[in-house]
Amino acid sequence: MRPIWTGAIGFGLVNIPVKLYSATERSEISLDMLDKGDHSKIKYKRVNEKTGKEVTWEHIVKGYKTGDDYVILDDKDFESANAKKTMTIEISDFVDEEEIDSIYFETPYYLEPDKSGTRAYALLREALKKTGKVGIATFVMRNKESLAILRSTPDVIVLNKIRFAEEIRDHSELHLPEKPEIKKGELEMAVSLINQLSGKFDISGYKDTYTAQLLSVIEAKSKGQKIAKPKLRVVHSAKEDLMSQLKASLSATPAKKKKAS
């Protein structure tokens, strides 16, 4: 793996030099965009809007428009805005992870210590583990300030970018049920269905089956086979009452086996 950011964790007066790695990879099939006529690949070019000519990366700069002109910025300008934030994951607070709503979670990364920071890294990892806390931190990556949490796993400290409060949309414009009349029997049946489907969470039990199915379609098409259009079977119509649908769901759904804790 290649690091995508290098800097340090700021933990009080302790600085822990680290490298940041992406903790995830995409699982979907890579599809190319093609010209419908001859199946040639579609390419994107960076074009000067005045001349129409392509511009190479080494001739591209970043600028901020002020009035009718641009202020051109380079890497040193971004660093000088706040050198500490561009080089440091600064922990400001420690909280219980359960206090953070999942809507704020964004992207996970692994943190690896530099050779000179292994002891301090291990100390922070064990301290997080012992207290059950996560560190709240800010840092700048790719010219954007990010809010993040640092949490301990048995082996690695994981940095999870989280969104700022102002990045979450207000849901007040949605048409949501206020307090509709719910029959006692319906609620009890719904709770029974939830209990029947409940079990210990094991992420390894969930697979990306769509990708495999799409590959089967691709393989069939490559052999000239005709792909039948799937039909969705509607078991219950909207006209039937909730109670009958819940009863049918309970009888059709096998109970989850409880794993020993």
Descriptive notes:
The longest helix has 14 residues, at 118-131. The strands form 2 sheets. Strands 1-2-6-9-8-7-5 form a 7-stranded mixed barrel. Strands 3-4 form a two-stranded antiparallel sheet. By secondary structure, it is α+β, with helices and mostly antiparallel strands. It is extended, with a radius of gyration of 26 Å. The mean pLDDT is 86. Among the domains are: 5-25 and 78-165, Ku70, Chain: A, Domain 2; 181-198 and 235-251, no CATH class. α4 packs parallel to α6. The chain has 6 helices and 9 strands, in the order ββββααββαβββααα. β1 (5-11) and β2 form a beta hairpin. It has helices at residues 75-81, 83-87, 118-131, 184-196, 209-222, 242-252; strands spanning 5-11, 14-22, 62-66, 69-73, 88-96, 105-113, 133-141, 144-152, 157-162.
Quick overview of this protein structure:
This protein has 261 residues and is of the alpha+beta class. 25% of the residues lie in helices and 26% in strands. Among the domains are: 5-25 and 78-165, Ku70, Chain: A, Domain 2, CATH 2.40.290.10; 181-198 and 235-251, no CATH class.
Low-confidence stretches: none
Largest sheet: 7 strands, mixed, barrel
N- to C-terminal distance:
35 Å
Instruction: Report the helical percentage.
Output: 10-25%
Taken as a percent bin, the fraction of beta residues is 25-35%
Mean pLDDT: 86
Write the SSE topology.
Layout (H helix, E strand, L loop, with lengths): L4 E7 L2 E9 L39 E5 L2 E5 L1 H7 L1 H5 E9 L8 E9 L4 H14 L1 E9 L2 E9 L4 E6 L21 H13 L12 H14 L19 H11 L9
Parallel strand pairs: 1-5
Antiparallel strand pairs: 1-2, 2-6, 3-4, 5-7, 6-9, 7-8, 8-9
Helix pairs in contact: 4-6
